[in-house]
Task: inverse folding
């Protein structure tokens, strides 16, 4: 059976894709996972073998699918599913084999799958079903991560070096917490910040906090397979990790 990953923030659309797959051919496809956000999609792709095919929406619940593709070396084929046509050129610069506009009809869906099977048969697309998807070359000199953020406190603007930031957190708006314990509001989303800083230095624990690895005091058992993080300076909420993120963090720290 062919392993399918669906990255889609609308449950109705995800279910529609599954119905279209079953209509195309029963007992041919296995749904590995249904994911609705950038963080979980990135972590899933890092921690699992690459699927045979990805159905990927453009706009996800916490950002854009390109936030995933800019960070990871995704070599398996992708069929984009979206209600907007303005991203088509950008999509086809990736490993895309088709770009389906919603509402997706069975005819257009079947045509996309037929294209996928032809490419698969002639080896024009390598599905890499048994390979891990990896982060893009983080040591490349062509990648320039942010070295500082301009933060404001009162009437003063201060350049704060990224290495001096303990974590970014969201509380209505996004704040920066420095290792010295100061908090500064920042006009950016956590997803945007995450894509601009080194993924080996910062870890996205959940939707509310992005942590500098050096700010982690210790990890503690929460539930079987799940961890909590203790950070310094102290964060007011308990930081609980999912099983996948717990595993990913342990790998990152080891």
Result:
């Amino acid at each position: 059976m062919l392993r399918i990953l669906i990255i889609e923030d609308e449950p109705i659309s995800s279910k529609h894709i599954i119905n279209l797959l079953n209509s195309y051919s029963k007992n041919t496809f296995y749904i590995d996972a249904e994911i609705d956000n950038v963080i979980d999609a990135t972590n899933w792709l890092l921690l699992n073998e690459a699927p045979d095919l990805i159905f990927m929406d453009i706009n996800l619940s916490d950002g854009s699918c390109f936030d995933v593709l800019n960070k990871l070396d995704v070599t398996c084929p992708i069929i984009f599913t979206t209600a907007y046509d303005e991203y088509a050129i950008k999509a086809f610069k990736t490993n895309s084999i088709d770009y389906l506009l919603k509402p997706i009809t069975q005819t257009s869906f079947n045509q996309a799958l037929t294209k996928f099977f032809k490419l698969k048969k002639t080896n024009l697309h390598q599905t890499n079903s048994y390979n891990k998807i990896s982060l893009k070359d983080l040591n490349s000199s062509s990648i320039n991560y942010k070295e500082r953020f301009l933060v404001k406190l009162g009437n003063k603007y201060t350049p704060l070096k990224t290495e001096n930031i303990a974590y970014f957190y969201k509380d209505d708006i996004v704040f920066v917490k420095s290792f010295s314990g100061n908090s500064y509001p920042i006009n950016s989303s956590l997803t945007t910040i995450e894509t601009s800083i080194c993924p080996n230095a910062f870890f996205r624990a959940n939707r509310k906090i992005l942590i500098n690895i050096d700010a982690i005091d210790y990890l503690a058992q929460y539930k079987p397979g799940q961890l909590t993080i203790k950070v310094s300076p102290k964060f007011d909420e308990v930081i609980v990790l999912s099983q996948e993120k717990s595993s990913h963090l342990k790998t990152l720290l080891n």
Observations:
- Residues 148-253 form a domain with the OB fold (Dihydrolipoamide Acetyltransferase, E2P) fold (CATH 2.40.50.1020).
- The chain has two domains: 2-135, 148-253.
- The first helix runs from residue 11 to 24.
- DSSP finds seven helices and 19 strands in the chain.
